[in-house]
Each structure stands twice: as C-alpha cells, then as structure tokens.
Amino acid sequence: MNKIDDSAHRYVHGYSEREIERLVDQATTLTDLLHSDTRYPAGVSVLEAGCGVGAQTVTLVENSPEAHFTCVDISNRSLQRAKARVEATRHRNATFQQGDIFNLPFPDNHFDHAFVCFVLEHLEKPVKALCRLKSKLRPGGTITVIEGDHGSTYFYPGSTEAWQTIQCLIDLQARIGGNALIGRQLFPLLTKAGYRTPSVSPRMVYVDASRPDYVDGFTKNTFIAMVEAVGGDAIKAGLINASTWDKGIKGLKRTTEGDGTFCYTFFKGTGTN
Ligand SMILES: C[S@@+](CC[C@H](N)C(=O)[O-])C[C@H]1O[C@@H](n2cnc3c(N)ncnc32)[C@H](O)[C@@H]1O
Asked: pLDDT tens digits, residue range 202-256?
C-alpha cells in the first residue's frame, strides 16, 4: 500500500516524464565521473536512499554485482520505475521498498554501507537525514553522498541573463526548504552528523564541442533541461520577467554551440560510522 502520497512531497524538479528522462541522461553521462571509485564487495548490504527512478541504481548493481542493494524512495511511482529499470538488466541484486529517509523501515545497525545521490539538496534537514542514515549503518559502515552545486556553474560566452535563470532555480529550491548550493557543504554536513574520517572530492564536468556526448547529455539534457523546467514557476513567483527568462535560456543554449564551453562541479563525499 502506498502510504506516502507523492503529491504531499515537495520536490523542485517534480516527477514528470521529462524529469525522469533528465535524471537518466544525467546518470548515464556522468557514470564514470561519479561512480568510477565506488565498488562494494561480495555479500555486503547497501542502502540506496532516495533512489528515484533508478538512474544510479543500474550503475550500482552493474558495478557491484555481488553486493545486495536495498533501494528506498518516498515516491512509490518513482520506485516502481526504478524496479522496472533494474529488472530490465541482467542483475537481480536489488530490492525496492517505499520509505522516508527520516523514518526508515529498518532496524539500527542494519546495513554495511549507504549511498545517497542528489537527495540532500532537496531536504530541509540534511544533517538530520545523515544522522538517520548513520543509525542504520553498522559500526565501521560507510556512507557515500553525491551532490551538485549550482553556484559552481560557469560558461562561455558569458550571459548575465543566463546566470539569472540559474539563480531563479536556486531561489525556488530554497523557498521549499532545499539547497542547490549544498555540494560545497558536504564536508561540514558529514562532520556535523558525526561521521568519522569524512572526505570530499570535487568532480568537475567540463564541456566543449570536442565532447558532443557531454554537450547533449550534460549541458542540454541535464543542466539546461533542469533550469528550463522551472521557468513558469520562476515567472509566476515574480523572480524574473518572461523576456529576461527567454534571453537567459538563449544564453545557456548559446554555450552549446561550436565555440561555447560549460563547467559544473559535483561533490562526492564519504564518511564512516
Ligand atoms: C533528484 S532525485 C534523485 C534520484 C536518484 N538518486 C538519482 O540520482 O537519479 C531525488 C529523489 O529523492 C527522493 N526523496 C526526497 N525526499 C525523500 C525522503 N525524505 N525520503 C526518501 N526519498 C526522498 C525523491 O522522491 C526523488 O526521487
């Protein structure tokens, strides 16, 4: 039974078909950058918290085929998508369960590891979430957290209006309790939550015309798609007017032309219980 109604959950990107495609494009393009150093040994149990539609899950099960993944999301609809996505692979080492990070349906000290990607940025209380996850880890278990940071964006040619559109997304996310600049805070957040030996590494995506796969998969289909999707809300909220918004989106798209460049930094953190 779906006890948690998706509509009750505030999530700046929403749960539309376009957003599902965007999460998958994002994960596919960034697989090496974000997953190259994450491998779990045979027999260990890993909690993937906030698995969404399974965009990261397919990589986790592929890279660590002998670990067992328990994948949780507050959205039952997303969870069903995630399940179908993994069932379409040859891997059978993941199970799916609806749940809230703040009230996880597992005993304490239950998992060897936890993996959380692009979730803390949407939570009003990220330290509390990290503490809840920590309580589910056995002593010596680890957490891996990956987050973006929209303030890390820069591009050529420059455009004031383009930057204003990004600021709208940052502001809208903040209004519903999220933090689109959370990547830079991973180290203090892990420390505050009590993890030992926290360690954070920046992962920069640099895009120019020599990498057309990144131009499409990251700049267009991940980043610009994410910003474009909040246009209506940003204008309605009075954060920007329609003509500045259009100029800004044009400015972002201009960076995908032959002489354009685009940079964004993700942050990957680990800590030990
Ligand atoms: C941006 S998506 C990321 C999904 C996936 N980790 C990925 O990288 O593609 C954020 C996900 O976190 C989930 N989420 C948000 N708050 C949650 C909570 N309190 N407990 C469990 N899941 C939550 C949302 O439903 C959404 O599926």
From this structure: 999 999 999 999 999 999 999 999 999 999 999 999 999 999 999 999 999 999 9
Task: Please identify, by atom number, the ligand 1 atom nearest to the C-alpha of residue 52.
Answer: 27
Q: Whose CA is nearest to atom 2 of ligand 1?
A: 52
| 176 vs 111: CA distance, rounded Å | 31
* Binding site membership of 117 for ligand 1 (Cβ less than 6 Å): yes
Question: Is 118's C-beta closer than 6 angstroms to any atom of ligand 1?
Answer: yes
Task: For ligand 1, say whether the CB of 27 is within 6 Å of any of its atoms.
Answer: yes
